[in-house]
Amino acid sequence: KIPLLIDTDPGVDDALAILMALNEPSVQVVGLTVAAGNVGLQHTVANALKLVEVGNAPQVPVFKGCDAPLVHPSPDAADVHGADGFGDVNYPKANGTVHDEHAVQAILRLSHEHTGQLLLVALGPLTNIAAALKIDPTLPQRIARFVVMGGAVTAHGNLTPAAEFNIAFDPEAAKVVFDAFPMTELVDWEATIAHGLPHDQIETWLEQDSEAACFYELISRRTRNWAKSLRGFGDWHSADSLAMTVALEPTAALRTERRPLMVETRGEWTRGATVIDWNRQTGRADNVQIAREVDTGAYFGRVKRALGG
Ligand code: BDR
Ligand code: CA
């Protein structure tokens, strides 16, 4: 089995991605390393613990990581995910407890234990991974594949006009990470918009008779309604589950493009933007492989199965 380490800030779409991973027989989830992002660390950790319980994987360790961006404080995404990150439904707390080891140390240790094999998937701000790189810059040499949900490759952001949440929450961390990894597989916000989940489709899957569907129906209700009413979109945009699909099934990325990516850490309007050198004007080496088109059949099938179908 492929060892899979998920760095995350759950978050309603993180939850779907994690249930998807726990449901995939070809991988073994070796840990969830958690950071602040969508909401504060206390909530993201509690949510991660609940997910391993709901996903029938209480043996998967949850590691508590960084509680704030590296340099500048940033607003969270409680307006989208609820104040507790899981739709404020007051779900019964998990029985499991967080592991003693800090998430940053866990990332480094697991990279040694699974040298050359580890699939590292980042679904939140890149603070934990940047901190790990500061301690040990050789980390990328031990990672088999690194998949990131983040960025907006043609600058149609969601947190700001130019920047996507995971990058804009901690641009300094994102810069450290993208500058260090030789080839990051990127699933960005624009790919997310292009591969939405139709509301009627997901509502059908949520009616499945399973604990995962029942729990997910509850915690995602607020976000789905928010997406329907406020944004008026016909589809629900679940970024992290799309990224997880590409992580678990690389051939699901039907069209990819490799380019240099730079993170904007300053700028009046563009802090946190992911600048892609589409025309190769910088002379920099390609460091991202951007998923431009994803197999929606593969994606929808994985969402359905993650919810017990
Ligand atoms: C990303 O930001 C978060 O709100 C989501 O969980 C996802 O990881 C989308 O921009
Ligand atoms: Ca996330």
Automatic annotation (TrEMBL):
<dbReference type="InterPro" id="IPR036452">
    <property type="entry name" value="Ribo_hydro-like"/>
</dbReference>
<protein>
    <submittedName>
        <fullName>Nucleoside hydrolase</fullName>
    </submittedName>
</protein>
<dbReference type="InterPro" id="IPR052775">
    <property type="entry name" value="IUN_hydrolase"/>
</dbReference>
<dbReference type="InterPro" id="IPR001910">
    <property type="entry name" value="Inosine/uridine_hydrolase_dom"/>
</dbReference>
<feature type="domain" description="Inosine/uridine-preferring nucleoside hydrolase">
    <location>
        <begin position="4"/>
        <end position="300"/>
    </location>
</feature>
<keyword id="KW-0378">Hydrolase</keyword>
<dbReference type="GO" id="GO:0016787">
    <property type="term" value="F:hydrolase activity"/>
</dbReference>
<dbReference type="Pfam" id="PF01156">
    <property type="entry name" value="IU_nuc_hydro"/>
</dbReference>
